[in-house]
Amino acid sequence: MAVIAVANAKGGSGKTTAAVLLATELARSGSDVVIIDCDPLRLAANWADKCGDGRILAITDATPSTLPEYLRRLHRPGCDVIVDLSGARDVLLALTLGLCDLVLVPVQGSAMDAAGAMQVIELIQYIEANARGRINRAVVLSRVNPLVTTRSLRKVRDLLLLRGMAMIETPITERGAYREMFEHPGTLYTLNEARGRSFDKAMVNMQAFVRDVMARVELGGREAAGPFARMCYQHAAGGRG
Ligand SMILES: Nc1ncnc2c1ncn2[C@@H]1O[C@H](COP(=O)(O)OP(=O)(O)O)[C@@H](O)[C@H]1O
Ligand SMILES: [Mg+2]
């Protein structure tokens, strides 16, 4: 079981797109996937409700008091949880950062996105310092032009690497298919089949991105599950015993 949070204080950085790609591919590999959609716009949950994949479910009413209970209930092999955060810097964000196995921070090649990412990273560091635990996190470059690397993208990447940020090797490329998933109900797989469209490049990118994300989750190992996680799940074990 993995709990992956997608966070960036900047709206439009590609959080929901990354969350949906993760859900698609994890379900494809046989997991039950629960998207905890923390954004009042509910774009990820709407997608999940209509995507036609019975393995993908959405929760839209998580609050700081209900999130730990949801995670406790979902904590079982074969179930992965993706928390799609809003841009809000609130208690739900802080709690999620402390409870997940990996914080994924999508960043477009722009200074504004990098600033939004730094807000999340500073909060992670604050929690780490105060809760004395490590939070596994990585940046993923999003909406990357598959053909050219722009100067601002290079600048953002260099800045983040300079700050010691781990980076998911496969960036999420800019693809029309990643917009179409929200316009027509379905996953890339079902859209590909139903509409006879060739989403090959998008699917190869999605698969490589998710493989790299899961390798990063594994790299963290159980030890790296957020500093609040032990408290949360030990409590559950105690309750059952
Ligand atoms: N890789 C991508 N390729 C094409 N469009 C994208 C990509 N990533 C994001 N978008 C588009 O950019 C907008 C914002 O993306 P979204 O994932 O909703 O960001 P966030 O959840 O951070 O606000 C949406 O219209 C989305 O369709
Ligand atoms: Mg979003």
From TrEMBL:
In terms of superkingdom, the source organism counts as Bacteria
Chain ranges of the CobQ/CobB/MinD/ParA nucleotide binding domain: 4-155
Question: InterPro entries given for it?
Answer: CobQ/CobB/MinD/ParA_Nub-bd_dom, DNA_Partitioning_ATPase, P-loop_NTPase
The record's section on Pfam families has:
CbiA
Against PANTHER family, the record matches this protein to: COBQ_COBB_MIND_PARA NUCLEOTIDE BINDING DOMAIN-CONTAINING PROTEIN, P-LOOP CONTAINING NUCLEOSIDE TRIPHOSPHATE HYDROLASE
Name under which the protein is recorded = Chromosome partitioning protein
**Originating species:** Rhizobium subbaraonis
